[in-house]
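Help! Submission page says 'invalid entity' but I think these are all valid:
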Amino acid sequence: MQKTILGALAVSTMLSPGAAMAQTEVQFWHAFTGRLGELVAAQVEAFNASQSDYVVVQSHKGNYSETLNSGIAAFRAGEHPHILMVFEVGTATMMSAQGATRPVYEVMAQSGATFDPNAYIGSVKGYYTTTDGDMLSLPFNSSTPVLWVNRDAFEAAGVDPDTDLSTWQAVGETLEALKAGGSECPLVTAWQSWIHLENFSAYHDVPFASQDNGFAGLDTELMLNGDAQVAHLTAMGEWAQDGKFIYTGRRNEGGANFRSGECALFTESSAGYAGIKAEAEFDFDVRPLPYWEGVGNGPQNTIIGGASLWVMEGHEDAEYAGVGEFLAFLSSSDVQAQWHQDTGYLPITSEAGEATRAAGFYEENPGTDVAVIQMTANEPTANSKGLRLGSFDQIRGIIDEELEAIWAGDKTAQEAMDSAKERGDALLRRFEAANG
Amino acid sequence: MEKRVKFRGWMLPLLLIAPQVVVSAVFFFYPAGQAIWQSLFIPDPFGLSMQWVGLGNFEFLLSDRFYRASFVTTAIFSILVTLCSMIPALFLAVIADRLIKGSGVYRTLLIWPYAVAPAVAGVLWLFMFNTRVGVVSWYLGQLGYDWNHVLNGGEAMGLVVVASAWGRISYNFLFFFAALQAVPKSVIEAAAIDGAHFWRRFWTIVLPLLSPTTFFLLVVNIVYSFFETFGVIHTITAGGPQQTTTILVYKVYSDGFVSQDLGSSSAQSVILLIVVGLLTVLQFKFIEKRVHY
């Protein structure tokens, strides 16, 4: 009796891998939960259903930082996935890890999957491409900051919701009017360093760091204490002191305040769209991010935030072929257009953007193209291509601390940014030493 | 009189201490050795290469004024957590010890918070004190106090201290309660007959008799506030605003696991190891003398 059970077990265990062997497995680690997690799972399922050679297995590994750290820890243990989602801040870390990653352009060339680097939108691709134009990682979800307007809150404060908000000068006057009209929270922001320093610098075409924001070499130094940045932060600091700008935290805590209808203006990623659309019980508008009239070359173009997909080294050739197919599938126009419309993330190819426009999506959902226009309005300059700085997650932490000192009135904007530069540069030198 | 067991030969005693030796070697000496070794390098995150820097990591740390400031932050934080978790615990234990009826229920309820993981406790307190939707901050607002721990360092420190100490009160309560039960009733009765009122009996008899427990808890709580509180800090303030709640162990965590700077993180662990070692030696040398067994 026992023998037959064992026999049956042996047969069944021999059969099951037999069935799976026909399909090559590709591991994909990402950082999405909730609605975004479902959408990623749907993309993976669609790919698996579309062909029979490969199976992509997706797993959620925590937030952006946690996903990157799991990937790194797994690499050290030799159990890393084929595809790892890494947020834009981790780009320099991944680029320096030669031997741990395989550039996307190589993967695509080896796999023979369709791949045209020119199909991708320049300002999205630029962040993840070498100065020679080789694509290192595949842009996956990219967004850019825009200005969200709560029209009802404007009306409640007796301010015309269609008033001009294209410049910070105009926004400053509007904040005054909102405050006078009784608004408790005229302006709130998410991701303060990303929006009010990194994007601010690119948008006004002033450098954030030397060496083309780090693209040209590891010997880069922060330049965020320039006149333009200090002027902006001084104004923001005054607004904070006057109760016109409400600080809620380092990440996107402010989103809750805006979605609940409390705040009138909100600077947040264009990808805030899904959440705001789902929760806001008021009329809202999307406007381009404001710029200071007469400062730098504004408006240039804003830069992206989000994540890209890195292919990791050390797997079988057949598996890389599957990786190539999957990445080609993700870049295809239909998949991208759908992703763009569902999430508010930017389309990564111009074709997907065109398809969305042709389908009439922008007309039905006014404002959803603001981010696309803002990103693509001008050809990126050395100051607006993106940032490539080592230890940047840590540097952002330093910037957050210094910004908090400005909002609390403990430091002037100049003092805070001088200190941020000094502390950030020390980390950049360490990164240079570790990766030089 | 000294108690001593005599063994014949070496094999049996060696065998008996072997499990502890193995556990210490695997979980303490090996990792500590690794940390000391790694603190001499700047490795890249993926472990592909290492740069020998000698004591460079220590130099880098000690020249950083924020790192030096975090020693002060840690000292303030651990003293506050230790006091805030031991004094209420002792008070509750004394009260519970006097109960005649229903002490079991009180005991269970008081021990309950200990079952809550630090990170979860952090989230609970964060919800109550959330600057916009928190219940407590709303009531404070009604009273005219504008609670804002995301910008006010003092409030942030207060919040992480309370959240860290809260679950710990239960643990301390348990030890104090057990120790109180062991205080001989006859001594207390004798004092009562002599006319000593309750608090007098407490100060002159009970507290000195509790001193071994108090000392033990002092050491354990300081170690706790040094090492096990980063879950609370991570969920509530992430070390901010500015660096007012960045304690040493939180910096080890954030530099090592968030920023992947393993060299600096290892160097910080080594410094922390030395600090806690020194503290424990000091405690045993100076405070233990005043403990009556």
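Support: the input was valid. A stray whitespace character was the problem, and the output above is from the cleaned input. Residues 66-290 of chain B form a domain with the MetI-like fold fold (CATH 1.10.3720.10).
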